[in-house]
User: Fold these one by one.
Assistant:
Number 1:
Amino acid sequence: MISNSLVEKLFSGDKRSISKAITIVENSLTESIELLNTIHSNTGNAFRIGITGPPGAGKSTLTNQLTKLYRKQGKKIGIIAVDPTSPFTGGALLGDRVRMNEIGQDENVFIRSMATRGSLGGLSKKAIDAADIIDAAGFDLILFETVGVGQSELDIAKAADTTIVVLVPESGDSVQAMKAGLMEIADFFVLNKCDRPGAEQAAAALQSIISLRSHDESSWLPPIVRTVASENKGLDEIIEKIESHKLFLSKNDRFQNRREENSKSRIQEIIKQLIFAEIWNNERTELLNKASQDVVNGSLSPYEIAEKIIENFKSKSV
Amino acid sequence: MISNSLVEKLFSGDKRSISKAITIVENSLTESIELLNTIHSNTGNAFRIGITGPPGAGKSTLTNQLTKLYRKQGKKIGIIAVDPTSPFTGGALLGDRVRMNEIGQDENVFIRSMATRGSLGGLSKKAIDAADIIDAAGFDLILFETVGVGQSELDIAKAADTTIVVLVPESGDSVQAMKAGLMEIADFFVLNKCDRPGAEQAAAALQSIISLRSHDESSWLPPIVRTVASENKGLDEIIEKIESHKLFLSKNDRFQNRREENSKSRIQEIIKQLIFAEIWNNERTELLNKASQDVVNGSLSPYEIAEKIIENFKSKSV
């Protein structure tokens, strides 16, 4: 049961209550549903920005600097750092977080690092739930920062109003492959560490890839912002570009449409989680354990077993 | 309906039939189930090797060279290259494939590149189905090559008997983050491009991370193989290490256990696909489209809608 006082304190913007609420989301599906149903009508006001890109591109530094600039404008900022680390390597990225301690002291900055602790599935869902909590607490902006390891950044992009992809000049080849997802989700690019050699060529290469994107007069072509985040260069332009993208979204129902699309993805993901929590009860997990032997021994195909388990689920779930 | 002649030709090792069968897997869920049920008892003989790592590490070159060496041993090789590219950037990695044309001419080498064409979900499942097809066609070895963009490489690791993680000396920082998943899935590491500066430090750093892994006398600690794949250096050692890992697996039911674990993941993934194909019929997709407006307007929470859709699914699915 979610206490009324927790919800009240949350609405008042109390950081400790935000933290508590996110812990609920991390630990209990049932309680988190209750909590999110309770607060839902108080969400939707915060603007959500996704910051992603390959490891080492300087996303943490950028997030840090952006936060400081937004604080000068009086904005309240929530930061959700999504680390899809494993139990084995958990905490590897802790160093980055330490640098954030400074801004984290601010009463109007809330920072939460969310890691998988074992199962990758569900992390993005939890991060989005956490954003709702920070949103309901009256924060103006939510920054999702994800380390660039694939699916989670794509999922987070589906939760953001604006997605910034951070690259560095030497990304080069890596980008070739990583752009797979990244190119598609970028509302704009930040080419960071632009004091390094090859910055201009990298920008030109990036520009030529962007212009391949099918577009007409009414569509948005991702601009490129050059920065040296560690020296605070180019940060103002990022904020400008966020504003122009926001303005672009505000026309012709685009903002509403984007949020509807994001909601659809979110609902689908929630359905996935709920159904799987239900399917994998003890009985069917046991069934799976036994059946996997039959698959390896060749007597039953994985599809035959899958259908058997689905049948069992359906017959017992009504 | 799957024709008997297709299955017969497939069992005889005919490359064109393998290709046809994989196309079925890519395009039709119903037909692919029929096909995979039919061939299942003929699978399980091929040894499956996953080759993964960050973009630019030289995985394609390595796969290429390994294939040539295995051909000298008379082995029949299937290669499944998993490219989680998007429609927008599809084909970006085609250059890599071109280099493979040479070995692809060989009657005893089958190469298939599998891309997502839009939806990331299901690619790994299809790649594993494809491996079954190649396996049933009597090939000795299957190499899964994945570009390092996250979830798909973790999924492929769950389909491999041995997983090789390819890194380069300069991975450095990137590895910090990417190791998230990679460290955990590696049965051994290949440090490629070892003629570059920093190779020894990189190997030492990697070694120290590996030794953090909890282990006892009976467990396998991933070795590191140094290579310069483009100059064909160190390739023999990779094959040696594959053999020692195979030998390790052959003791104490480890091989059987690993395949059972892999089968479990596969069955779970299949269930996911089957259930979602069923959930998202026209009626419920329509329901989702309408409901997403209510979520954005704040009148219903995504959890309330998810529960409504699940209820609808259950009541109509029996």
Note: The two ends of chain A are 25 Å apart (CA to CA).
Number 2:
Amino acid sequence: MAKNKKIVSEITAMDVDFAQWYTDIVKKAELVDYSSVRGCMILRPYGYSVWENIQAVLDKKFKETGHENVYMPMFIPESLLQKEKDHVEGFAPEVARVTHAGSEELVEKLVVRPTSEVLFCEHYGKIIQSYNDLPKLYNQWCSVVRWEKTTRPFLRTTEFLWQEGHTAHATKEEAEAETIKMLNVYADFCEEYLAIPVVKGQKTEKEKFAGAESTYTIESLMHDKKALQTGTSHNFGDGFAKVFDIQYADKNGELQYVHQTSWGMTTRVIGAVIMVHGDDSGLVLPPKIAPTQVMIVPVAQHKEGVLEKAAELQGQIQQFARVKMDASDKSPGWKYNEYEMKGVPIRLEVGPKDIEKEQVVLVRRDTREKIFVPMAELATKIPALLEEIHQSLYNRAKAHREENTHVATTYEELQQIAEEQQGFIKAMWCEDVACEEKIKEDLSVTSRCMPFEQEQLSSTCVCCGKPATKMVYWGKAY
Amino acid sequence: MAKNKKIVSEITAMDVDFAQWYTDIVKKAELVDYSSVRGCMILRPYGYSVWENIQAVLDKKFKETGHENVYMPMFIPESLLQKEKDHVEGFAPEVARVTHAGSEELVEKLVVRPTSEVLFCEHYGKIIQSYNDLPKLYNQWCSVVRWEKTTRPFLRTTEFLWQEGHTAHATKEEAEAETIKMLNVYADFCEEYLAIPVVKGQKTEKEKFAGAESTYTIESLMHDKKALQTGTSHNFGDGFAKVFDIQYADKNGELQYVHQTSWGMTTRVIGAVIMVHGDDSGLVLPPKIAPTQVMIVPVAQHKEGVLEKAAELQGQIQQFARVKMDASDKSPGWKYNEYEMKGVPIRLEVGPKDIEKEQVVLVRRDTREKIFVPMAELATKIPALLEEIHQSLYNRAKAHREENTHVATTYEELQQIAEEQQGFIKAMWCEDVACEEKIKEDLSVTSRCMPFEQEQLSSTCVCCGKPATKMVYWGKAY
């Protein structure tokens, strides 16, 4: 028992080494394991189950907004990837190449998809003929491969799981509306399901997606005050359509190029969940995506009637929450540690004394608060408590972000905050890439986004002093 | 209108050219499109939606039987694949190899998974220590790649979607029970959801999976009298465990090798659905996996009240069936053809006269039968009709299989049936691979399986005349 207990509690403290704390959690909470291919991770049942819950919610939202799922091949001929210049420049340095198949060397080499724009373009070119065929609103769930130099579970891996939406529209306006709509779907998802507040905004020219006309992003702030890009949505205009000749006959019979978008969210959001909500005891999962929302731990389970009552409660609770019971012969102490490590939102303790009083003890993972609840009230109290935990996690994360969002109106201020306080730094910018590059080089912070909610902090660029046109969120990022 | 109508009805008749009929359907029903990589197909929304319905049912069955989903990397180091001799011999000739990534040539070449036994073995070797860790019941949904010389949509493609279950058990008996249990899950699924009757049995030594101790299979008979292997389940014994050193401490603290299984079902079953149920007007989908179960076609929809009533009916029907309405300006005739091609089980026609009589017309896709139903009875009549269509499809497929299952007790009979009648041929066998090979070479039929339901057709092998030990189903196969 003692040995088991020690194993689960042995994680590095956040303040001692945040990176090690993160790595400890993903291993100890059994989210992932490493495979023998560098940078490729195994999503273990607990980690995959979080992803399944995320998928279920997003997939429903995509379908409600009129999108259909498809599956495109994982291989892209090199010549196809090379068609769009900016796009290939962005991805060529990090693609995995298949050169041999069976006993033969391939005449045309293939790349494993790093993203599937060109496949969708080729397909759209074939299936879109008239305005009746538009819009095309497709999405796919798959894995993609980008050869990364340094990798970390969830945050940056050679292969990762994601969804990629790819749409084609008749007009520029419709494409822009779609791009913003899907960014809002991501933002609402992060706030309402992951309890992670986000800043919505546009990427600068320098930071936008390879081949896009404009890229929108949601950015969130981790516990260590670094930013994480949590989802992106791109408007391609008719750039890809011209390269891939995707035209439709409009109502007057005239040929027009389509306008396209793409948008994606990845397993990276699980990294965000860990780094926004986790603590020194392990993972803290937002209730709405937690594989298990309530873990029942019977106390003195060898005593008559305890296991029976616990099983009866499990049967009741599973009508309104995802519940499990650990009736193994491990000690309650070991179990408490284990499910704290795994971030289960509510622990339910029930023993002989509780049964006598017809009550149970609910213990919140986030605050450790103990609540005595009559058994007869579980059907109202548990759902209410799950909702309260969600709100509380969101509020805490938002307070953390607000405490760590600073304003800089001079370069000295910018430098001081970047070096000492970190977090998000709001500052004005002239939109000249030279200033953006200087800030990055000098201070190791990058432009996270130009937020939709603009403020006029001052009239001049924080870097060069020329007239400013945009307020930017700056920060160190994953 | 006329032009559109012609396009959808232009498919080759089954009896003229079955292979062309098949290809026409997958294209015209918009199930798949070809990509620019040979043998890789695009699953279009309609085809993918069938797969999503299949996934939903199977995934639920897997979870109900205690399995958990995981995700393993798509890349396998060559050295890892080579560890198990039979396994690598079976798959090496058809793997895609990644030799370069980014700008570098890889020191250790990678293969794209053709199946993931070795990855699960490596992982199990790390996470299994004691009997408490067993059984491990994992499954994953993913795509795999096998470089095929000739390909056909769904039936044989370079990349295909599937699920692969991989389990580890303490004993030989538990592994065998799991293997049979999952075969039964597949068999029940085919019969209860796809309306496809199957023969359950064991593969011969020659036909079993590379590295398995025994392979079980479900075999079904297509409209053209060829067999299709629809799902397989393998018992590996402790063969892989010994190679990968997967041991656990039993209750006495002694190290034991685990016993493993794997089992898989692929998008190939969609090919079976097409070839078992389809007809000269297109696809015929079994109701339980049809993306749309009821398609409403308003008649004289420009007349007052028709579209409103049709929409009202749609609202009612969606409470108990997957329903869509086509209110486009295409003619009813075009729509009839289109949804027959797409195999929608029930067409609901409603026009001014029907509204007057408070009735609708239901048209069965499978029999073309027209049924007049009072609007007030749709909530009982439609579910009952969907069930009846399922049963009717199953019965028709079973009758077809029975008509085309023959008995051969002499080699002359076997030859005559193989050449003239085809279908399944039941015949006795001595279990000598030489006879199996001679039959394959002479008659181009292979052993499909040794069915669980054995019969004593005669006492001698149909090939060599020596004492027979097994009854075998023989046939030409996809």
Note: Chain A touches chain B through 51 residues (CB under 8 Å).
Number 3:
Amino acid sequence: MTGALELGLPMRRPRAGLPERVTVWEVGPRDGLQAEPTALEPAVRAELIRRLAAAGASVIEAGSFVRADRVPQMARSAEVLAALGDLDARLPVLTPNPRGLQDAIDAGAREVAVFLSATETFSRANLGASMADAEAAAEEVVRTAVDRGMRVRGYVSMVFGDPWEGAVEPDASARLSERMLAWGVAEVSLGDTIGVATPGAVADVIAAHAARGVPVDRLALHMHDTYGQALANVYAGLEAGVRIFDSAVAGTGGCPFARSATGNLATEDLLWMLDGLGIEHGMDLSAIAGTGDWLSAELGRATTSRVARALAGGKEAR
Amino acid sequence: MTGALELGLPMRRPRAGLPERVTVWEVGPRDGLQAEPTALEPAVRAELIRRLAAAGASVIEAGSFVRADRVPQMARSAEVLAALGDLDARLPVLTPNPRGLQDAIDAGAREVAVFLSATETFSRANLGASMADAEAAAEEVVRTAVDRGMRVRGYVSMVFGDPWEGAVEPDASARLSERMLAWGVAEVSLGDTIGVATPGAVADVIAAHAARGVPVDRLALHMHDTYGQALANVYAGLEAGVRIFDSAVAGTGGCPFARSATGNLATEDLLWMLDGLGIEHGMDLSAIAGTGDWLSAELGRATTSRVARALAGGKEAR
């Protein structure tokens, strides 16, 4: 038996009305690794990023400038950036506060990202601040970075549901997105942190943004696959005109609150759908799958990517 | 932490233009179990079907009338039916040849199903016959059953891709569906046997059927989740007007050719999306998930349903 990719699968079957090209924003080295029990050395994280770039990834979240005692998986992110000075890829990093931003600037970062929560409970649990205080802190980081000519991404967590509060109204994230764009962020990534969204909710959240004048080309979708819904939600996002999608090679990450093995949407699974739809993304699925296999071995865990598992099974069967 | 379902998740967010109600055709006791390494006794299979019916399943594939030496997992399907004579649910069974049909009739079956392959290679490998010979055999079964007033479902395998031939043209399945409907089948279930389809292919296959005069209300989608694409494909099917979807509790089954742990779309994952979209299906997700947990224990394997795993994780965390 030959492998699926060598057989020309998935079949390329475009759909009218979908974007012709999208940006896959690879979050594995940051959002993925920060939630893994195994912490990787900076040299290994840099090697992962080099492999992703070689496979065609053009935007790769490279690290997080946070307290190493709180997120040991992201310790020494400056060394990761230092090892990648020559790389031809955008390497945004997470900077949740002014101290983190300064450290990122000192490390040579040119793109940064900040986080807000759409719910009060998660803001206090995860950011350690009320929504109002978190907004004030994020605004300071964003304005400082923008003043220095940096590109800034805003994230909103718990857009589609919250493990304490349950349902979240679409306007809760739209309100935050509107504010962050006013501060100067280039785009807002809408996070389904616990993976509970379904396609109608995606459409409603994008519509709530449009009602506040936030155009869809300033939005990214960051779907977790905890309940297996991520790709259906991406498809709903494509139909609504979204052209930026976050994913993590090998499906690394996860939500500690759901205690599930599945975390971020796997880049491999996303690329399979995009390839089938004939939507350009600039990455090579086979090379990304190889990178995911390498990363899974480094982490000592099985991939959660169904594409990666199926491709590996096909190779065994040959 | 409270469980997701108790928190009212997923959020109910309907989409205009989708069906208000669908039939979930539960294939776990047949298509699921026939591919599991552990064979369950007829009494256990009957208990599974009773639990599914109690959870609201209205159509449950109950068994297969095939040679027990070829498919030992389906041996003694007559005993399964005999144990369920009083059950308030439709219980179709697979009858690939006239002998199987007669055995099913003798066992009291009122609904049966036949199979064809959209590709020559799979027809010879799986059905042991050329496509032409398989069509002739299926026609005999269908006409005999229809003459006796039975409801017959036709299946087409390898609709979206084949592990030997690669891409499959949409009209290959449409041609077979047109024929089977002419013989008198009530509906045709289109199978993505190796799970390679993407949403554009689903739309194209349905359009190819329409071009041959096959209306969408005579079609069911039978998506495997091998490459993680099943739910996105179901969503594309809903948008195209499909109102019958096959799934298997706990994601049992799988394609022996892909050597993947993932098989049929898990009923739990399908119900999560349908509940979020506000589409009625008559089943209770919590009860189905409980049935999947019970079945997984009987099989001695982990569920492949992401919803089931996430719900179990949420319970642990409480």
Note: The radius of gyration of chain B is 18 Å.
Number 4:
Amino acid sequence: MNKDTLLNVYNNIQAYIHKTPVLTSRLINEIVGAELYFKCENFQKMGAFKMRGATNAIMQLNEAEKQKGVVTHSSGNFAQALSLAAKSLGVTANIVMPKNAPQVKKNAVLGYNGVITECDSTVIAREREAAKISKHTGATFVHPSNDINVILGNSTATIELLEDYNNLDIIVSPVGGGGLIAGTALAAHYFKSDCEVVGAEPIEADDAYRSLISGKIETNETVNTIADGLRTQLGDINFPIIQQHVKQIVRVEETEIIDAMRLIYERLKLVVETSSATTLAAIIKEKHQFSNKKIGVILSGGNVDLSALPF
Amino acid sequence: MNKDTLLNVYNNIQAYIHKTPVLTSRLINEIVGAELYFKCENFQKMGAFKMRGATNAIMQLNEAEKQKGVVTHSSGNFAQALSLAAKSLGVTANIVMPKNAPQVKKNAVLGYNGVITECDSTVIAREREAAKISKHTGATFVHPSNDINVILGNSTATIELLEDYNNLDIIVSPVGGGGLIAGTALAAHYFKSDCEVVGAEPIEADDAYRSLISGKIETNETVNTIADGLRTQLGDINFPIIQQHVKQIVRVEETEIIDAMRLIYERLKLVVETSSATTLAAIIKEKHQFSNKKIGVILSGGNVDLSALPF
């Protein structure tokens, strides 16, 4: 892998994704004493960065594989992303979703022509169902975060960010399943090697923080965090990348996430998911460390239940 | 007045305002069957288009007048806009606010160095207090919407919009005090004379709709609308401009405003004020009329109480 690997991915998927804007807020900069550049993946197609990874994963398939389709298990953004990317590329996307997934999420997948198979809501049931579909149809399984092509697709958000702002000292990314921060770290490494990558993670689901300390993939016993996109854990493909290229993970409290989310709504006038707000929460929490730096901030997505905003 | 009048205003204020982005949504376009181009004045400095008019009003003063400052009465966006514009230009802004205005609004004005004078919450008390300040200090009174320099400043949002999209058939603007739609109409007239301007107004405060029919400025007996920025009425300076250049005003129900607002949050991922949502509500309501058109939509601002969202 080298810089050209990432550039090729970016060139390939460019026609299928939005180049998202980067926004700033004078007031937020004053609060943190640094220059923040918010990469608005909430404006990405289907509302989250996941569109990038899903698109690349499908584009890497050969024609025979594309004929047979793809399959994943997800009830969140990746289900929509894979469905829309598959639709754009003329491929069938099979989505395994728990029976009790909200109808609004099922409708979103159906709206993008995704083919839903329902299953019990345990991880084992979901994986078994996806494996069954893969076996029967020959569809390629695409993991939402632990897949190198997904990670490379995700890296393109940071390629764009560094294209617009090539003087960043730090980029802060949320950490959930690890697919976004691994992509962020690869892009920073190959496109601006002196730009540090810092993760932001809820204390209530701090498996990545603990994994970096212990040197092996840790799990969460409970995931009582409002940042529902970050309840997942690292995988064997993204963890080594994170170990090598991520300097630090900052853990944040639930109230810190909510306060930062409110600031993003009030000052940036952006609708973002709770997961996205962990980044600004981390910067505010450790503001002495970030003081006077130029900081890229990945706002990962904007698919949020407006009826359940925490303020 | 001619095109150069507006261009000069734009050139003058450009350094003090943001050129705001224009966003689109494939799904919203599908819903309405037209191409919508949302002009994001919620990203304007202090969060609303009012920054444009306030800045121009102050810049038109001579040095002696600037020394003596400006005064207005407002508890909303114009109070903040005049305070920030005055601060940027080294001028004192006196803001008359009702005693019972929320502390958060007072703080916003104070944050921009505005000098607050409190008064009773009646219109008469506010006008009297502003006149008194003007008499004592020599400060120039600037009306939030019924002032030609404010109107010309507001026109620059549409100048920018037509600069980016010179093929628009229609521009839809909210109607409150009339300062925004009058500016919109002037810019459309001088920069693309075949582009129609349509107003969007709550049925619950439909003074402008009735004024266009009767040919004189009508008032509202009640203003039971969630669109708090649109509870004001037209004035003698903006009304003739609206009569001459605004083709139509579409009136919308409260539920239509709320539904459109939700769509803007969910699909555009933007935080906007209720007033801004009247535009999309009007387009959805009259979608047969707007079908297949290229429509500019002025999202007037984003200063909303997040604790009181209607969903």
Note: Chain B has two domains: 3-48+147-308, 51-141.
